[in-house]
Amino acid sequence: TIVICEADKGGSAVILSKHAYQNECLRLLNDDSTYKKLNGSPHEKFICEYNGLIDDGKSLKILNDKEYAKLSKSWARIAHFYILPKIHKSLVNPPGRPIVSGIDSLTSDLSSYVDFILQPLVQNLESYLRDSTALLNILNTPRSEE
What we know:
Oligomer: single chain
Number of helices: 5
Strand order of the largest sheet: 1-2
Largest sheet: 2 strands, antiparallel
Shape: flat
Order of helices and strands: EEHHHEEHH
Strand content: 15-25%
Radius of gyration: 21 Å
C-alpha cells in the first residue's frame, strides 16, 4: 500500500510506502519533548471550557450577540495530523514536516476573529508587509546613498 502526498517544498508529489509514512508519523509523535500521550480524548472537555470562556466574553460585554453566536460551538472537528516529506533533505526515508490542520477545529473561528480585530493595528506597524509582492517592491525600489 502507498501514500501519495505533497512534498514539504516545491509542490512535488511524493509516493511513500504506507509503512514508511506511518513510521515517520510515529517517530515524530513519539517525541515526548514535543507531544504528550493522552489517556483519552479531551475534546468534549475542551469544548465545554472554550464555551465557558465565550460565555464569559458575552456576560462581560466583550462580545456582542453576533460575535457570541459566531464563536460559540456545539461541535468541532478534531484537528488532523499529517506530514509533508522533506525530500529536499533526503529522497530515501525523508524526514517529515508535521502539520496539524485545524480547519473547522475548536479555535478556528476564534483565530479568524482575533485576526480580524488585530489587522487594523498590525497594518499600522512600520514592519508590516501585506505580502511577498510588497516586499519585492521595497527591495526593488532604488535608495539614495547617504
